[in-house]
Design a protein that fits this description.
The chain has 244 residues and is mainly alpha-helical. The chain folds into three domains: 109 residues, no CATH class; 84 residues, no CATH class; 34 residues. 61% of the residues lie in helices and 7% in strands. It contains ten helices and four strands, in the order αβββαβαααααααα. It has a two-stranded antiparallel sheet. The chain has a two-stranded antiparallel ribbon with strand order 3-4. A hairpin with a 2-residue loop joins β1 and β2. The longest helix is centred in the C-terminal third of the chain and has 33 residues.
Length: 244
Amino acid sequence: MVSQPRRSYSNATIAALTTLARGGCYFPGCNVPILRLIDGEPFLNLEIAHIRAFEDNGPRSEKGLDIRGRNSFGNLILLCTPHHKLVDGPRSTEFPVEMLDSWKEARESEGIDALAGLTDLTEDKLASMIQEAQYQLFERLQPALDEFAKTAPELAALLRSATREISDPRIHGFGLPEDGIRMLSSASRGLSHLQDTAPQLVAAARILAQIPDAATMLNKAAANLSKAAAQVQDAAAVSRNGRR
């Protein structure tokens, strides 16, 4: 018995469909999402459907189209179960190849155009984009650093120097390692709140600035207490001697 060819899709094809589907079923107006979370785990919520039938006698079959062509990315769309049954069921003649091709083009064209546009992304253009993003980050930090400099000028100068160095691609270039990217991501989340916390840092710095004065006062108070204690001891000694 000769085995029948099976539906088989490459990982790249599945990835392209789920990426370019823009989150849902290709049927116009359908809002069924690609994924569902069940007990915290993601599951594919849509079915892969053929524009030109996989089976020789299926809906919209095309004579001469080989198995590879039937399973190719260009012949596939994602449909929720009800729409898949509708498109391939008894009413399949209402959904010709041209209509399904138009659904696919409408859904994927924007993403494909964006991918095509990456061919124009030169290293210089990418460098310029990264540099601009870094400068924008530095500009957002400036007000907080200016306020911080009022009470902690040395630390503010150090932070300003560090951020300026980070924002200059001529120093570090653009080949950031994976660990460095994670560290920068974590740091950026923390620094994003710097402007909001700057007043608190300033207030803390003012309190800390008074510590030397407070220490001097405590030292004087301790000396006075020690002197008073000595005087009390002397008075006690005199009193004991008088009683004798």
